[in-house]
Amino acid sequence: MLPKPRNEFEIVLPDLPEDQGGDEEADEEEEDEVDEGTSATVEDAADVEARRQEQAKRRAEAEFRSRSLPLQRGLPRPTTINVAALEAARDGAAPEAALVLTEMLAMMRHDAAVFPPKGSTHAPSKGPAYERMSREELSEADALVAEEMRALAVDVDVTAYNNLHTAIAADFAFIPSQQQCVPVGWGRGARSHPGGGANRRRRQAFLCARRHCRYARLSTASKADSIASLQNELEISRNIMTQEATRAAKLEKQLGVKLGGYQKREQDLVRQFAEAVKQLEQARLELACFEELAQLERDGVAERLAKLQQEVSQQVAREADLQRRYADLLVDRRQLLGV
């Protein structure tokens, strides 16, 4: 026989580790976050980790919101910043526009160094010094920009705009044979941007790239240039058609892999449906034939009954006539025998 159970328990608390010098700051932060009146309670490690993750998440979100809008929206960025073009535009711009271009150039340099765009060969680095604006300043700037946009907004006649766009598109065309000199940088190995007269001399020494990227008026273009422009458009259309055809074939192949089972099931259902329709038509044809035969049978019953009744009457009359003749012959036989 088993002994009776005894409910005896002993609770032993683990010894808390002594505070070390390297953990004093972390302990102070945790003690500040613990609510008043619970200082004697040891917080669960899972809660501490969850709180740390939440704080890290909030810090990451705040850091992400402090980035520029191209980084937040994932917009494409140039792998190489054309500082020369921005400097030249800033020199000839109004003071307000020059300030905007200066800030834009500083922002682009910082983003290119800290967050290199896709395709760049530079590794992420600390980048040049860049003053970050607070959320209040950015919100105030957004409000000012929106107010200025509302002030500059004008009603646009859509019909007039479309007519103007059509006229410009019809008058201008891409001329492959015409080339232009495009500034592409400060020169080989240049890392700094000189100012004053040196800046002006360096701008005159830009590298010029002979690029086929010129649009011109068709009215001033020669016949050969017009033909070359049309041929270029035709080649572009062919390339687009080839790319779209390749893309369509690839998508069709992918859809064939993903929807292969559905397509096979659809083919089986179509075949079964066709067989069912064929059987239904055959059943309808047989039903129509049997209904016609049934109607013919119903129509022939009265005629056959009348004919049978006539034959029966004739047979009855013949039987009666034969019986009467038989009776006469019996009488004649008796008379002959002298009975």
Mind sketching the topology for me?
Blueprint: H1 24-33, H2 45-65, H3 69-73, H4 83-91, H5 95-114, H6 135-152, H7 158-171, E1 172-174, E2 180-183, H8 196-204, E3 208-211, E4 215-217, H9 223-258, H10 260-337
Antiparallel strand pairs: 1-4, 2-3
Helix pairs in contact: 4-5, 9-10
Would you count the extended β strands for me?
Answer: 4
Low-pLDDT windows of residues: 20-26, 33-39, 180-213
Estimated share of beta-strand residues: under 5%
The level of helicity is: 55-70%
- Order the strands across the largest sheet as they lie in space: 1-4
Overall mean pLDDT stands at: 78
> What string, H for helix and E for strand, traces the elements in order?
HHHHHHHEEHEEHH
Rg computed from alpha carbons, rounded to a whole number of angstroms: 52 Å
Structural class: mainly alpha
Number of helices: 10
Q: Give the overall shape, derived from the CA principal axes.
A: elongated
**Sheet with the most strands?**
2 strands, antiparallel
First-last Cα distance: 128 Å
Written overview of the protein:
With 339 residues, this protein is mainly alpha-helical. It has a domain at 54-153. The protein has helices at residues 24-33, 45-65, 69-73, 83-91, 95-114, 135-152, 158-171, 196-204, 223-258, 260-337, and strands at 172-174, 180-183, 208-211, 215-217. The strands form 2 sheets. A two-stranded antiparallel ribbon has the order 1-4. The chain is elongated, with a radius of gyration of 52 Å. It starts with 23 loop residues before the first helix and ends with a helix.
